Amino acid sequence: MTEFVDADAVLEPTLQNVLDQTTLKWIFVGGKGGVGKTTCSCSLAVQLAGVRESVLIISTDPAHNLSDAFRQKFSKHPSLVNGFTNLYAMEVDPTPDLSEVEGLEGEQGGFLADISTSIPGIDEAMSFAEVMKQVQSMDYSCIVFDTAPTGHTLRLLQFPTTLEKGLSKLISLKDSFGGMLSGVSRMMGAGGPGGEHMIDQMLGKVEQLKRVVEEVNSQFKNDELTTFVCVCIPEFLSLYETERLIQELAKFEIDSRNIVINQVIFPEEVGSSRLLAARVRMQQKYLDQFYDLYEDFHIVCLPLLEEEVRGPEALRAFSQHLLQPYQAPPAQQQDGAGSAGGGSNSLVEEMRRQVEEQRNRIQELEAELKAAKGS
Known about the structure:
Elements: H1 2-5, H2 16-20, E1 26-31, H3 37-49, E2 55-59, H4 66-70, E3 79-80, E4 87-91, H5 98-102, H6 106-116, H7 122-136, E5 142-146, H8 150-177, H9 180-187, H10 195-220, E6 226-232, H11 236-251, E7 258-264, H12 274-293, E8 298-303, H13 312-319, H14 337-340, H15 346-374
Parallel strand pairs: 1-5, 1-6, 2-4, 2-5, 6-7, 7-8
Antiparallel strand pairs: 3-4
Helix pairs in contact: 3-13, 7-8, 7-10, 8-10, 9-10
């Protein structure tokens, strides 16, 4: 254990290792909802675009935020991000219509949708497989996934198993009922005597998608090709979710060696605010736990900002903190805070102002109460 205690052996607190590993093709960014995954994934993609030939960032979160982050509308087809020559973005629907996913139209698509309802998760699995098949046909040197909150991400990683179970169930149905399926297919609207042929076609589609997912899954388990960046904030629930996520990633044999802790308030910025000091003490407790639990991880701390990071230029600026540890500026003196204007985190000054206003208001109420009692 002494090698982790030695300061010389502590891993650098940046994501430079991700940029340096030129063999990486799949980079997942995930964590609890509301911790800033999209900002971190977009910032990482911006930095990767500076060292890779071409980068694609994909949002698999139903509540897509890539368009908001870059202030540019994206669709399910890759679009060049404004201000870049080699960075592309796309937002995919994790649960589209099955007939669209499978390429089966009309009655056949309807039959597939009906029979798949007995296989939980098969629709998402097929959708993911279709996306991966599309992505594999594209020529990008690196692909960044802005994933949904933890639970959805873990389901995504289970899709290969889901597909295998679904395929086995469909095959067992066909083997068990044989020619009866053609009659069932007619009752469900699959058409004439070709119903059984349609089922064979459907099974062929599923097998094809299963092969794609199996191939991608083998790449996901290769730490030369894939890594997972965990994003969190210094609070209990986020610490708990991060531990759960890392344990599940280990179970799926997916490499994870980077943690980004977002929305950190640095002690240097506290000044005389008791509210901020209390928040710093709370955060520090969980930061210590992160460092104790993940001493063999690269841990990056990002500051709490006064406004959202939106637009290519704002993302370029913020992304620098992924490669260079954030240096908090000293807090402004209370009497000169209003005119100094030099603090990089004006949120601190705003919170101080609000605390001062609350103090004044309390004094006014106390004076009114005292006057009321006197009368």
